[in-house]
Amino acid sequence: MSPWSIKRLCKAIENGAIIAYPTDTIWGFGCHPMLASSAIKILNIKQRPVGKGLILLASQMEYCLPYIDPGLSAEQLDLIKQETSHPVTWLLPAAKNCPVWLRGDFSTVAVRITSHPFIEAICDEMHSPIVSTSANRHRRSTIRNALQARRQFGEELDYIVTGFGTGTNRASEIKSLVTGNTTRI
């Protein structure tokens, strides 16, 4: 995507657009994390309960700081930023004002830092993380490309991103920062 296209897409996301896009793992649905109506629309498309929460994807940890407990140590923040052989989504203690649609029924918020070129471009333009959740209906297979996104969800989405590949076609590992336990491998 050209810089102009990225700017245009970011303005749309900031104004409530719902997108389907490739991530560092699988295809996802995304929106601006502070727009409840957009997050709820994604949950409705997925037929997923709000209690499950959503993931924040970001190119820089700093973009996620408003959503996480400010008491994390420098060592903990460094651990989240470390490169791994497969992407890791971290469950972090949520800030008191972290929106319920992001954390769900939990006291944590899911965060993944990535160097995926599309995520970097979007987050750096908005100075914000982007919501991410697998691009599928609840308990169904995830779409694998823009054509599948258009066929299955075309009328329900505002934008389908093209021109970028996914990283692994496998969901991220999910780990708790506090306990070290892995929820999903």
Number of strands: 9
User: Over the alpha carbons, how many angstroms does the gyration radius reach?
Assistant: 15 Å
**Portion of residues in helices?**
25-40%
Number of domains: 1
What separation lies between the terminal Cα atoms?
A: 32 Å
Which CATH-level-2 architecture?
Alpha-Beta Complex
Poorly predicted segments: none
Element string (H = helix, E = strand): HEEHEHEHEHEHEEE
Q: What is the topology, as strand order, of the major beta sheet?
A: 7-1-2-6-3-5-4-8-9
Quote the beta fraction: 15-25%
Detailed description of the structure:
- By secondary structure, the chain is an alpha/beta fold.
- The protein has one domain (3-184): DHBP synthase (Alpha-Beta Complex), CATH 3.90.870.
- The chain has six helices and nine strands.
- It has helices spanning 3-14, 36-46, 74-81, 100-103, 117-126, 146-153; strands at 19-22, 27-30, 55-58, 88-93, 108-113, 130-134, 159-160, 173-176, 182-184.
- The chain has a nine-stranded mixed beta sheet with strand order 7-1-2-6-3-5-4-8-9.
- β8 and β9 (182-184) form a beta hairpin.
- α1 crosses α5.
- The radius of gyration is 15 Å and the shape is globular.
- The model has no long low-confidence stretch (mean pLDDT 94).
